[in-house]
């Protein structure tokens, strides 16, 4: 059964705290606990969805896994090989095996480079293969992501948003990674194009045996692509488990709120976050105790004092709540 697959990547108690500096001497006046003790597994050939409102720390989690922001603390174990995230060091051996794709590939594609050179860059940087082998590999990647061979000499601005995301995916695949962090990869695209890119990612997963951390604020997309789902609120995972638990039998009041607030096809039942909550706290103004207590209908005294730990409530289903 798929859910018994062992973890390929284990993240343990990951923390990323940013210093807030102020004044002429840029003194440290506080910190933003953007990621504050996050643990999860990504299993072989599976997708873990990471969902939560804007600012909850999803991107910072993904960037820390890639070594693109400095982790304050925590451990990242890839295929049994542990890397101490402490002091932000992610070993080179991990970096090649993990790649990232972003919401807006355009900003990460050099506008003056032709597509074939963009996709080739990782092979050049890591000095992989002969020039002839690199050329052949780039052609293979171009067709693998559904672009035409004659488009290889074009520049990024000559492509649509969806095609640019395909270029970003091809570049991410060049080093034959096992894990890909997908940070809102379809959020900037039209709905019809979203489906094409999601299908491409699903096909690539099957064909190449990839594992994904799929970051999105869009519950519909997360439900579509994930095997397992982690729900994040202000730097912490508040509920994690098999997709059917999260969408079928959610236990955390925040997960319930997210599901209720998701855009419905019925316009009479359409809720938005802004309507549901006027005073949403942020990572810089995080409530003590359970960070969700200012918005939670079930909050009691203990919620205002003690931060609840993530506890197992069923097979592959953990929740951080005093009252569930
Ligand atoms: N480089 C940084 N310096 C200071 N604060 C940051 C930095 N990057 C992100 N943050 C803060 O960390 C929190 C989480 O941000 P982010 O990970 O981008 O959230 P998400 O991707 O879920 O929208 C936010 O409050 C954001 O303002
Ligand atoms: S711990 Fe309390 S405030 Fe937090 S989600 Fe549970 S009931 Fe709500
Ligand atoms: Mg983000």
How would you describe this protein?
The chain is α/β, with parallel strands linked by helices and 324 residues long. The chain has a single domain, classed as Rossmann fold, CATH 3.40.50. The chain is built from 12 helices and 12 strands. An 8-stranded mixed β-sheet has the order 6-7-8-3-9-10-12-11, with helices on both faces. A 4-stranded antiparallel β-sheet has the order 2-1-4-5. Helix 5 (131-144) crosses helix 6. Mean pLDDT is 90; it is low at 265-276.
Task: Walk across the major sheet and give the strand order.
Answer: 6-7-8-3-9-10-12-11
Q: Determine the fraction of residues in helical runs and give it as a percent range.
A: 25-40%
Given the helix and strand composition, which structural class is it? alpha/beta
Mean pLDDT: 90
Q: Report the β-strand fraction as a percent range.
A: 25-35%
CATH topology (fold) name:
Rossmann fold
**How many individual β-strands?**
12
Secondary-structure element string: EEEHEEHEHHHHEHEHEEHHHHEE
> CATH H level: which superfamily?
P-loop containing nucleotide triphosphate hydrolases
The number of distinct structural domains comes to 1
